[in-house]
Design goal:
Strand order of the largest sheet: 13-12-11-14-15-19-16
Strand content: 15-25%
Structural class: alpha/beta
Shape: elongated
Largest sheet: 7 strands, mixed
Length: 433
């Protein structure tokens, strides 16, 4: 026990599964002199001979939120504390979590080689351009197309869409085969190759490579393990804004619902989107506005709702064809179900199903500060109803009438054919909301 008045730092020690052999002399010394050793049960057993007989041991499994207080109380009593972490504690590890709750002056990190680095070394893959990721989160089950951001694999799929090489720390729930099944669900299995490094630095160590994603989806892998992913073909560059109407599947032979290119461009501009915006798309139609918003808000999320079953199916197919993951669709009639969505930075209303006044009031209550509500109307009655609802809710609003004309061939010449006029109503919540 430390009897000096100087606060003894908590030492966070990175270890590997070969136990004491992975520790440097200084780290071993800090571990031996610790009065309190905190770690996962498996790590505590692995280093049992390096822990002094008098030292108290605490298993942090399922108790992570209590660890900062354990450390704080021990330091107040003048006790030396060591925390055992896997690999590099600053690479998706516990060190950042503890530093944010204890302050950086209260800890000292002794990093080891990350297991992701080890996996790359086993396959001879340079890792300086790899995206390091972790799926150490609660079990949210198998990946479902259009899952919301709270799913444990959501962030990984976003990274897969945006990067060419990834190294992934898995978990007992979010396993390599589950990751492979997600790639199959998103029709990405033909674009990626996978390798799995099992039980690194243990006698049973094994690296599985050269199997297809579809095959990996059916295999079981020994825990613990890490996954390496790399593209087998180059990503095609994507247009982010101003997609032509023909880019979207529409319902035929009936006339499908789509916000035309010119109106869509102005509506998206008025929504004042950021890379991390949360967007609601109400009355999605063919999904054109919401899907284009999802491309612009690659670190955000779009929640969409469509009451027509055929159109809802088309939105899903458009999402898949465009390679978009940050988009969730509900088949239903607004405002039902909106209570489960995250508060929006921007809302687009392309169809209301007759509940316009109620819908506007709800949106203005849920909009984040400085958020925008953008609505499209083609009838005078809906325009009038929207303006009255905005007035009743104390919103700041404006109306733009937009009418475009497109050239069309006539014999050996061209004429201008007018599109129907559209009113674009834009609003921000006022003080009363």
């Amino acid at each position: 026990m430390n009897t000096d008045n100087v606060l003894e730092k908590c030492r966070i020690l990175g270890v590997l599964d070969d136990g004491a052999a992975s520790l440097g002399a200084q780290a071993r010394q800090h571990l031996w002199h610790a009065d309190l050793v905190i770690g996962a049960e498996r790590t505590l057993k692995l280093l049992a001979k390096e822990i002094a007989p008098h030292a108290e041991q605490r298993d942090l499994t399922g108790a992570l939120s209590q660890v900062p207080e354990w450390i704080r109380a021990a330091q107040a009593d003048g006790r030396r504390v060591a925390v055992l972490a896997t690999g590099d504690p600053l690479c998706h590890g516990i060190a950042a979590y503890l530093a944010s709750r204890l302050c950086i002056e209260a800890i000292e990190v002794f990093p080891n080689v990350s297991t992701l680095q080890l996996a790359c070394a086993r396959l001879g893959l340079p890792w300086q351009e790899m995206r390091f990721a972790s799926v150490h989160s609660k079990d949210a089950g198998e990946w479902q197309a259009g899952a919301a951001p709270d799913h444990g694999l959501y962030a990984l799929l976003r990274d897969i869409r945006q990067h060419d090489r990834l190294a992934v720390l898995t978990s007992p729930f979010n396993t390599p085969d589950r990751i492979a099944r997600m790639l199959v669900t998103e029709q990405l299995d033909g674009e990626w190759e996978m390798a799995v490094a099992e039980r690194l630095c243990q006698p049973e160590e094994r690296v599985v490579s050269g199997v297809t994603i579809a095959a990996a989806a059916q295999l079981q892998f020994a825990d613990p393990n890490v996954v390496l992913l790399w593209r087998t073909r180059q990503r095609a560059p994507q247009v982010l804004f101003g997609l032509p109407d023909a880019s979207f599947e529409q319902r035929h032979p009936e006339k499908g619902l789509i916000t035309k290119n010119e109106v869509r461009a102005v509506s998206l501009a008025r929504m004042q989107l950021r890379a991390d915006s949360v967007v609601w798309d109400i009355g999605a139609g063919s999904g054109s506005v919401g899907l284009e918003a999802a491309r612009l808000c690659r670190n955000g999320h779009v929640y969409a709702i469509e009451k027509n079953e055929d159109d809802a199916a088309i939105v899903q197919r458009n999402r898949l064809a465009m390679g978009i993951s940050n988009h969730s669709l509900v088949h239903g009639k607004a405002p039902q179900g909106l209570q489960d969505w995250a508060d929006p930075d921007a809302v687009f209303v392309g169809g209301s199903g007759g509940e316009l006044a109620e819908l506007i009031a709800l949106i203005l209550q849920r909009l984040k500060p400085q958020g925008w509500l953008v609505m499209n109307f083609v009838t005078l009655e809906n325009l009038a109803a929207a303006v009255e609802a905005l007035k009743a809710n104390g919103a700041t609003w404006d109306v733009l009438q937009l009418q475009a004309a497109r050239s069309k061939p006539i014999l050996h010449m061209h004429r201008m054919a007018a599109e129907n006029p559209v009113w674009i109503v834009c609003a921000q919540a006022g003080e009363r909301a």
